[in-house]
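Marked as duplicate of an earlier ticket. Keeping the data here for the record.
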Amino acid sequence: MLTAALSYLFIRHLSAMKEMQSTIAGIEEEKKKATASVSAIQTEAELSILEKKKMEEEKKKFEEKNKKMWTMNEAVYKEKKKVDEENEKLLKEKEKLEAEKKKFQEKNKKLWDQSLAIHKEKERIDVMRKEIEEKHHNVTESIRYARRIQRAILPPDEIRKQWLPESFVLYRPKDIVSGDFYWIEKVEADDDDEIILFSAVDCTGHGVPGAFMSIFGFNLLNQALDEHNLKKPAEILDFLSNGVMKKLRMHNEETVVKDGMDLMLCAFHKNKMKLEYAGVHNPLYIVRGEELIQLKADKHAIGDPYEDDFTGYNNYEFTLEKGDQIYVFSDGFCDQFGGPQRRKFMSKNFRETILSMRNLSMAEQRAKLKQVLEDWRGDIEQYDDITVMGVRV
């Protein structure tokens, strides 16, 4: 019984031991599970800490990013405000430009209208210009024809050289036609001496008015010889003055029209070697050897009425010697502007020039006078008609 009881107890003990072992095994298993759970919890806790740390870092980054975004947003706001202000300025500028554009369009329209008006005026002016050019051409051609007529009344070079073998003429009109002219005629004296009349005449003005006056003067000189048989220079000047006074001098209460001429008229008696002369304003130069003799003229203008103190022009005589050189001229050479100071050439320089060329031939004297004139004048326009006549006896 005891054995059975012991066996029973042993079995129960074994059973309890097994049960206990099973319980212990379960506990161990639970422990393992708990350990695993704890480990998982620890791992999870560690992960939570890391996650928290990461989240904090992310939060910090987000805050920094948010701060940057705020800063950027503030900058964008300021920039937007600036852009808005610029837009407002641009809008005002646009409005201003629109107003300017409108003004410009209005101005452009006015300019266009003016351009059309100018174009029409230009067309009208072109028509007038063509008419004027045509008239100018016709007038110029008429003046050129008048020049041919005027040149035709001048003594031909062949006649001059025949009557005055040693002579020259420098004739330089300012314009197409001239108020200057030179005149040469031959008459027989009562004592069968041969008389050569010659003169340089300077009429009032130059160009067309002077040319008309020169033709009138030329006709009066020829009338004095051909119709009145006058031979003395003073008588011819009296006739010339009376002719101008009667034909061209008109007196009334409002105006006095003065037309006249300055001249030196010479009568060379070839056989007697005597020179008669009479003049108005322009003197007479005679070069004898190294001396220049100046013979003055009367001051009473051609065409002026005769008064108590003037009864007629004076007739002078001068005895010539072989080789004497006689010069008659208008005032154009002396009055020509030029030189460094752009002043008149003047009579003193003219006399010095005449005297300096006394040993030259007549052709060489003409060439020298022409060169002196050109050098003095330079680029200055010719001031007046120029006539110089030289005769060597």
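See parent ticket for discussion. The radius of gyration is 63 Å.
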